[in-house]
User: Fold UDP-glucose 4-epimerase from Chryseobacterium glaciei.
Amino acid sequence: MQTNISRVSVTEKALEVIWELERKYGELMFYQAGGCCEGTQPQCFEKGGFFPRMNDAMIGTINSHEFWIDRDLFEYWKYSHFTLDVVDGFGPGGFSLETPLGKTFKIEYKLFTPEEFENLEPVKRSE
Assistant:
């Protein structure tokens, strides 16, 4: 039996920042928008601190926290695996919870093989 392939993963370095944010804020959520001010920087909020738009895609979880992306961005990147990483510095958004730590989350993308794409975990859509 084939297991479903995850659409999102996290580096150890990013996970350490997430643990720090969990201790301070509790439950979290991630949202990656598709343009304007925040560009495509993934943002981290307290759970419920951001409301996904209708038909945005929840592509998986990171340490049990939902990872949402903009519906239009998902259509562009649905063939890609997202790996959440973190770097020193300030991203363009500034609203994300890691910003006061002098960190910014970023995404590394890898295209799925055709076989992987056929066996992906299902996507949840907001209503």
